[in-house]
Design brief:
The chain is α/β, with parallel strands linked by helices. The protein is 37% helix and 26% strand.
């Protein structure tokens, strides 16, 4: 379970996320939507503390993963990030083979036995539907794959360290329609084992795969609810205007 309590993020003295609270349960896909520049990506970075290295960012509030506040004192950020797999807008494969991209994480965390590493690599490539496409060329560079295949490889790489949460930041925005469909299907298949939080600018995608939708505007949570209710019976006028296409 992920619980955000009153998260506020200030970047260069500008409030980008304001007093944001949200809960995501295991087995659910929560999709965050809103117009460009509303703070979606900045909010998502609160989950894995990717802003920590920036001296111009301050954060208040709390983010609980299960019962642990990841902004609490003495928290080891590396351990927190291990709990989360992240898919960015464009796939970022490592400059190594297909096999080594997936094996990289388990090796970093101490798994050395070749057979064990192989089984992890195979299992995750199967889980993202990539095994049959690459099993005879595991030692070829990952950059030789198509963009859609690279994105699935990045997902396999993230899953190989056994995270609890999957984060996606416009994870299909650079993909063709067929690859987009594959990634969406994977999210739906994987949600039974993970909490999944996705940022998207595509309302059609949100409607296809979300269990719950959070609508952001100017850094604030305007509306949150089940996907069917969100689209058929929005409570806030601002939400209705957004769904009607009054702004984007």
């Amino acid at each position: 379970m992920i619980v955000l309590n009153n998260i506020t993020k200030i970047y260069n003295q500008k409030t980008v996320v304001r007093d944001f609270s949200l809960k995501v349960n295991r087995g659910e896909i929560c999709v965050i939507v809103g117009p460009s520049g509303c703070g979606k990506t900045t909010l998502l970075r609160s989950f894995n503390r990717l802003h920590d290295d920036s001296p111009n960012v301050s954060v208040s509030g709390s983010v609980f993963i299960d019962d642990e506040d990841i902004y609490g004192r003495g928290i080891e950020v590396t351990r927190i990030r291990k709990k989360m797999g992240l898919l960015a807008q464009r796939p970022t494969v490592l400059p190594m083979s297909i096999y080594d991209n997936v094996a990289y994480g388990p090796r970093i965390y101490g798994i050395r036995k070749r057979r064990q590493v192989y089984e992890i690599v195979k299992h995750q490539l199967v889980s993202v539907g990539l095994w049959n496409e690459v099993k005879y060329r595991l030692k070829t560079p990952a950059v030789s794959l198509s963009i859609g295949q690279q994105q699935r490889l990045c997902l396999a790489r993230g899953l190989a360290v056994e995270p609890q949460i999957i984060l996606g930041d416009e994870a299909t925005s650079a993909l063709d329609p067929i690859s987009t469909t594959k990634i969406e299907e994977l999210f739906v298949q994987l949600k039974s084992d993970y909490s999944i939080v996705l940022v998207t600018h595509t309302l059609r995608q949100a409607k296809r795969i979300a269990d719950y939708i959070a609508f952001m505007y100017l850094g604030e949570l305007i509306e949150f609810g089940p996907v069917g209710e969100f689209f058929s019976n929005p409570k806030q006028k601002l939400t209705k205007d957004y769904l009607d296409g009054s702004f984007s």
